[in-house]
Amino acid sequence: MWHSDFSTNLHLGAVTALGHDVVIILGLFSLFAWDFDLTVLAALLAVIGYSLNDTIVVSDRIRENFRTQREMQPKDMIDLSLNQTLGRTVVTSFTTLLVLFALFIFGGEMIKGFSLALILGVLVGTYSSIYVVANMLMSLTLTQEDLAIPEPEGADLMSFLSI
Fold first, then answer.
1. CA distance 82 to 57
2. Per-residue pLDDT for 94 more than 80?
3. How many Cα atoms within 13 Å fall on the side-chain side of residue 30?
4. Domains of the chain
5. Whether the predicted pLDDT of 149 surpasses 80
6. Is the pTM of this model over 0.85?
7. Phi, psi angles (nearest 5°) of residue 32
C-alpha cells in the first residue's frame, strides 16, 4: 500500500477532483452536442479555479482539525471537517448558482454556453470538493502522523546550544 505525506495526498485529491470536474462538463457538452466555443472554454477555466478554491477550504479544515483534535480517528476527523465546511460550501454554491441562472435566462444567446458550463461546473465542483477529495484522502491511508507538525531542522542543535 502506498503511503506518503499529507500535502502529497491533498495534491492528488485536488488534481483528481479538478480532472473529474472538467471531464464531466466536457462529457455533458459532448453527449448533448452543445456548442463548445471560447466562452465555454473560459467557463471551464473558471470552474477549475472555483473548484480548487472549494477544495482548498475543505482540505485546510481537515488539516487544521487533524492538528488540533488528535484523539479522533482519520475517518471521524474527515467527517467532522466535512460537516464543518458543508454549510459554507452549500451557501456559496447556492448564491453563485442564483447569479448563473439569471445569466442563463436573461443573458442572451452569446453567454448561454458560458453560463451553462458554469452552472454544471458549480454543481459538479461542489460535489467533487466534498466527496472526491475526502475519499481520495481516505483511500491513500491518511494517518495522524502525516499531519503532525514537523520539528524544524536543527531543533536538536538549537536546544543543545541554548543550554
1. 10
2. yes
3. 6
4. 6-144 (1.20.1640.10)
5. no
6. no
7. -95, 5
For residue 3, count other CB atoms closer than 10 A to its CB.
Answer: 12
Burial 92-131 (b: 16+ CB within 10 A, else e): bbeebbeebeebbeeeeeeebbbbbbbbbbbbbbbbbbbe
Q: Assign 157 a pLDDT band (cuts: 50, 70, 90).
A: low
Cβ neighbour number for residue 140 with a 10 Å cutoff: 19
DSSP string, the chain: -----HHHHHHHHHHHHHHHHHHHHHHHHHHTT----HHHHHHHHHHHHHHHHHHHHHHHHHHHHHHH-TTS-HHHHHHHHHHHHHHHHHHHHHHHHHHHHHHHHHS-GGGHHHHHHHHHHHHHHHHIIIIIHHHHHHHTT--GGGGSPPPPTTHHHHHHHT-
Asked whether the beta carbons of 104 and 119 are under 8 A apart, the reply is: yes
Q: Is residue 15 predicted with pLDDT exceeding 60? A: yes
Mean pLDDT for all residues in the chain? 84
